[in-house]
Every structure is written in structure tokens, then in C-alpha cells.
Fold these 2 entries.
Entry 1:
Amino acid sequence: MQRFICRNCGNEVHFESHRCVRCSAMLGYDLASDRMLSFHPLENVWLGASSDATNLFLCANADSAGCNWIVSEPKTQCVSCSRTRVIPDLAVEGNPARWARMEAAKRHLFRSLVRLGLPIPSRQEDPAHGLTFEFLADETASDGSRKPVLTGHDGGIITINIAEADDARRELLRQRMGETYRTILGHFRHEIGHFYWDKLVAGTGAQEGFRAVFGDERADYGEALKAHYENGAPAGWRDSFVSAYATAHPWEDFAETWAHYLHIVDGLETARAYNMTLSATPGPERTNVAVAFDPYAKPAAADLVAAWVPLTVAINALNRSVGQPDFYPFVLSEPVSAKLAYIHELVAGAPV
């Protein structure tokens, strides 16, 4: 993520900010220019806009879901909010806050997709396979049994259980499933990987290359998942996979690696924005590594990994120094780096 400033007073603000803490100016993020705009009430204008600053408005979900994105028509939704077609029952206690957390994470996702130039067709543009989201809650049947909502992707429809927005519940699931990492944004980045497999790999010239790197996706998916949940990941899985779940099936390997690719690109942009320089090796003859490139400008895949690894080592050490778990508890082996390179080339050639 880049750094943002209040256009009214120059104070640093954040991607999620609604008001400047210094001057109290109302803030709005403009996706087209990738800028944070500041509203000047006396002049009735958005400061920092690259277009007509008087014809801009906050997303229609500003009050209901806390969206701070700018739109060009009043009472309309931004590109991220408009892709949500089912929201949880807001009459249920806690659901308004859960929905807001979901939408906040989704806005991070959409900024990355747009910055990478990836297609994000709506359901109106592509009724059969367009991208849309459903945030659902577990249901209770008349006999008292629970009908759980499974997070997943199907033909452009990404469903996420609203319970993922509860930190305690999500942590309980993480521990129960033996995961090292579980976040709302991670879910979005994983499931969107399935969407782009369908859009960019399936039935294209990229499919054979996919099989050479990830394996043959024609293996029975249901049986593969069943075996994974019964037996777990094979011994030595870290030598070839970015996560234990990636071992379940080539589709899951792709989605897990896709999520990590988005983690890397966005994380490196943040490091670059703060001019972070890191040591690749300890000792007096250490070589310093700086993120001297825009990771969203599609540099070489090897450059992304070379800059990311020392960054994760440094932040993991910082986390440990204050008693926190590792920021990035993963290993990028050579086979995983090759998978990241495949996704990097896929993204670079993606049709807009």
C-alpha cells in the first residue's frame, strides 16, 4: 500500500481513513487516481481530485458499511461495494460491524486487482461468470441443527461466511484446522485466485504450463479434499508448497500461491512507500536490499522474491521481539518461487 496524505493539511492518513485526525477534513479514496481526497466544506470541493472536483461523492455504502471510496454519481456504489450482491441480515446483532469488516478487506483486494490491470467483470457485464460476492451466515434448522456456510468460489460467485469477521471465531478455526495464518483479506485473495484460474488458465494456452508447475487439476477434487482432511499434508510439504492446504489439489495450490503473490506485491509497495532498506545477510559485510521498483509495475518475479524474503525476516524478528507470532510464517522454496513466477507471468499477460 502506498502512503496517503490529507490534501487539506498535509497530515498522513490511511487507506481506511474517513477523517483526518489533525484537521477533521472528510476523506475519500479515489480509485481512478489512487489518491486520498479531502473535502473542503467552505468551497464545497474535493481537494486533490484529478478531474472535476465538484462532481464527486462518497459511495452509497459510506454510512451503512463504512466505505470511504469516491464515486462520480450520487447515491451509487463504488466498484468494490457494487460487486456484493448478498449481505448478512443487519437486524442481527453484530452483523453490521461484520459486514463493514468484510467490505473493508474487499476494498484492499479491489485496489490490488485494479493496480495489476486484472479484469473484474460484473455480473451485469458477464451474467454467467461475472464476479460477485455473497456474505452469508450459518443457519439454524427447525430441529436446532446448524447448517454451516462454506467459504468458496463457484462460477464467479465468491461466498464467505460472515463469521470470518469475528476475530475470536476465526482464531478458533485457525487453530482447529492447524493453519499458521487466517485473515479476512487472505480469504479474499485466495478465493479470487480460483476466479482467475477459471478466467485466465482454464481452456487457454496457459493450462499446460499450469500442469507442469502445479500438477494435473483433472485429479478428482472431492476425493483430494477428503484425503487431505483425513490424512493432512504429506511429510516434507514445505519443500514444494507455500502452505499445507496447498497440497490438497492443484487448484488449491494455485489459489494459495495467488494469495501469496498479492501479499507480496502489496507488502513490497508498503515497504517502498516507507523507504525501507533491509540487510539480506547479517554481519559486517552485509548487502542491503531496498525496494527500488514499483511492485505493481510487473518487475521480474525474481526481484519480487529477492526483496520480499529479507523483509519478512526483518518483520518476523520485530514481531518476536514484542512477543507476537511471526508476521509471515511461510517459506518460499525454489518450487514455490517457480509457482509465483508462473502467476507473475499470467498476471502480466492478463487481458484488461
Entry 2:
Amino acid sequence: MFNALVAQQTGKTVTCRFEQWDNCQLPDHPILVKVSHSSINYKDALAVTNRGKILRSLPMVPGIDLVGNVVESASTDFQPGDTVVLCGGGLGEDYCGGFAEYARVPAEPLVKLPATMSPKDAMAAGTAGFTAMLCVLALQDASIKTSSGSIIVSGASGGVGSVAIAILARLGYSVTAISGRPEHSGFLKQLGASEVLPREAFQEPAKPLEPQRWAGAIDTVGDNLLAKLLAQINYAGAVASCGLAGGHQLNTTVMPFILRGVKLLGINSTYVDNPLRQRAWQQLADVLDHRFWASISQTIGFQAIPEYSEKLLAGEVRGRIIVDMNSAE
């Protein structure tokens, strides 16, 4: 028996509560992991508070991130004792996730944790850091070099945006941040942004083409801001789009694509093939160290997940929330 935070439906009401579960209640996947740490993402907070349709079936253990040690494995790729990390891949949405002391998971999205990265650091990264790294890799694969010009990052105060700034700066890129929270300007410059622009500067409707300003962009906002960035990207530049915090619409023209050769790169961090997952995690371990992850995260105990889910949705938390599954505080 082990502890799990479980979403259950009673009548028309869905609630999350702590329960004692048995391994036989976990899904029929080939690898059993003893979870050491998880993290709270926006999706997780919505699932725990029942404010969003995140969970595909019930009962379900939320938690789209986990790190831990393999206990049993029917896959030749993993052996008992391996320290592994999983972010996305349907975890905590399609099948039971990281908010339990044990999880049974498929092999395809599972990655051995790089030797230079601790379990806590992996969860300080979590889906946000993994997504940020995918965005940076996509820009690099699109031939956006440090010599190409400045990279602009929207939603810079959020998890993806802030980690993306740190990665880009440490790789030698010049980075401009867009943030709607002026009180975070100092924090963003500490991460490596050379300039912080207010979100209001991008509120005017986008023209088909505007003066070229950026070699590339990482956009977590969507809607008019994404259209504005596309119109301002340099010839042969690229935009990695990974979010819709500002809306899912995109009112633009083909002009940036056919006249400037701009590339719009869609980033989906949930379903990613394993070689790219391994590449992203190794790059995260190589580029950012423990001091960075510690500076953007706080650690809570297992029992505090509901409380901090509420705080996250209320905007009362800055940075990443690591869940220590061995602590009840």
C-alpha cells in the first residue's frame, strides 16, 4: 500500500483526496517507479482543484512530472535502480501520474536522468524547463545562431519563459523579454535578459509586415502577440510557439512566411519521441546548474499539493514548486 492523491467522481462532483492505494490499482504499464519528487504545473493545479478538464478518465492520480527509481521493469531499456524522469507523455492525464509514491509508466517517454542532474533539479525543470529546452533546440535546428541577432521571449515571467531566457543567455544569445509584470524586470535581467519590454508595447493589432527586429522568438502567449512577433522577425528567422496564455487565435497573413521566409515552429512537449527527450534532458543538465534550479524553485511536502495548487492559480507563487514525496509537510 502507498499514499496517492486521487481525483474521484461522486455523482457530478469531482474531488481530489489522499488515499491508500495498492500497485494493482495502477495502470498496466511495464515499468514501476518509486517516485521521489514531482512538481506542480498549471495543468496539475487545474486538475487538483477541478477547474479544468485535464484528466481523461477517473479515478486518476494527477501530476504530469515525476522523477524516481525503477523498482520493476519489463523493458530491456531500464533496470531496477535506474533513476528516471518523465514529463508529459500522457502522465497525469491519460494514466496515473506523479502525485503518488509509486507510478507504473510506459517505456517510450521515460528517460534516464543525466548523471549531473539531481532529482530535485529535474523537477525544478519539469515540464516548463523541458518545454523551454525544446523551444531552444527548435530555434537552433532552424539555424538561428548567436550571431543571427536577438531572441525575444514572451510570457517571460512564467515557467517556460524564465527558463528559456536563462538557457539562451548561457548559450550566448542576446535575449529580450516581454512581461506584463514590471516588478519582475530585475529578476528577468538576473536570468540573462538584456532588455525587458512591457506587454503593452505589443497590444496594437499586427500589420502584415513590420520593421525587422528579432532573429527569433519563443512565444508562450499566442493571439495578437504572436502575430505581432511574426511580423517583426528578421528574414529567415523563426518563432517557436508553445503556449496560448493570451488566446488560441492567430490573425496573421502569409507575408512573413513567403516574403521573409519566417518559420513558425510548433512545440508540443507532451508527445515527443524518445531521442529528442534524451537530447533535451542532457542539454538541460549541461547548460543549467544546481544553483540556477535552486534559485527559481521551492520545495513542499506531499500533503501541501492542494494548498499550493490553489496558490498557483491565484498567482501567489513565483517560480517552480517541487514536491518531495518523502515529506508530508
